[in-house]
Amino acid sequence: MSKNNQYTILPFNFKLFDNDSVLLVNDTGDYYFLKLADFDNLLGYSLDKNSNIYQDLDSRHLVADSDIDLTIDLLATKYRSIKSFLNNFTSLHMMVITLRCNHKCSYCQVTSELAEAYKYDMNPDTAKKIVDYIFCSPSSNVKIEFQGGEPLLNWKTIVATVDHAETLNKTHKKSLEFVICTNLTLIDEEKLNFINDHNIAISTSLDGNKFLHDKNRVLRSGESSYDLIMKKLDLARKMLTHDKLSPLMTTTIDNIDELHIVVDEYLKLGFDGIFLRALNPYGLASKYAEDLGYPIKKFVSAFEKALNYIIEINLKGTRFVEYYTALLLTRILTPFGTGFVDLQSPSGAGISGTIYDFNGDVYPADEARMLARMGDKHFLMGNVLKDRYIDIFNGRVISEIVEKSCLDTIPGCATCVYKAYCGADPIRNYLETKDIVGHRPSSDFCKKHMGLFDIIFKKLKNNDEKEMNVFWSWITHRDIREIECENIPGNSPEYR
Prior knowledge:
Oligomer: single chain
Distance between the termini: 35 Å
CATH superfamily of the domain at 89-293 and 340-393: Aldolase class I
Number of strands: 15
Largest sheet: 8 strands, mixed
CATH topology of the domain at 89-293 and 340-393: TIM Barrel
CATH class of the domain at 89-293 and 340-393: Alpha Beta
Shape: globular
Structural class: alpha/beta
Strand content: 5-15%
Helix content: 40-55%
Number of helices: 21
Radius of gyration: 24 Å
């Protein structure tokens, strides 16, 4: 190696990509595709430092020469930004207002109770105690999410919780948000007026058209869930003064080959995007896995087809976002965090989000609460009626999760090319292996994300201008025509 060609190779993970190139990614998410011959030259310290390839690698902090100390300082700053979610601690607080539900969905992850089973309601005093603990969090941002069952069955506790939280916030002055996760079927004018007055967002469920939705989301009364939801959706849209109503779908064997129909239904109803979500193996979804489930490879394939379909919709002039792709792209293409608990290292379970059961029990994630409903309370952090805040949030469960969910120390994750963008799922690992570290080769979480990242990076490698315009419109929340205008020669793109 000549003296003029001396350089330092900085840490990165890599993988062979499409059999003709190598994908390199460093710990802060900077990536680059190299031809195989150039990769050999890089490792052999024979790259020409005046070449465009070397300059690209240098700009992405994959190599360095005389300015190595400055490069390390820049990387450290970026790494601190990526891990900044650890500074704020818990911001998302989910409250199980009741386990009662007027539905009996075949894939219900929590195994809901009959609408008359009032003993599964959270009482207002427990709710207020939970809110007291929520405001102990050092985070300046607090989101309280009401879950069930069907939370509208216990409306009085929702009202009491919102009133108490808003009263406390007059002193704490945090950024305070509320979300109600509801099937919408019990919504009425009184509730919508309260939702309007307190600027509460609504998250609901929609699995496709009438046939696909009613297949698994079943009202206990035997009526069509879809028909009732359409009536309530119309009422909500007429009364709400804010645009904060969004649906969430679940992919089962019944709609996995019909995701284009699901997308068309969302478009028909005027929604501006969809979150293509795989089935989770908890509650009834686990019990009926043979009837509802599918190999994770099938989900990845269906996801890719649906994503391509959605991209074509955008290219034809209708802005419609696939939210999980947008979230992953944000991790890859920008320095900004997403707040998504599942894609954090160490895991965001308990650190970024936590859930309070109807009886005051505290778990690090909804999946941990679901696991407890299946009979295993390994992740029970404590109870707000019995334990102090510090003992709950600085106890065995959180310590174990933090210790064993850092990707840099997990076999298989530490050397994965997608480590910088991914996260750990300790609860799912424990469910599958009884070990929160888990086993990568058999992990569906790992297989799913490896597949989705492969899909996205294939598109990034191809760098089709039209597809890239769609992606940038999603992650910058702008109209695609603005992005296209910026890419006209002579214009200066704002986000490049």
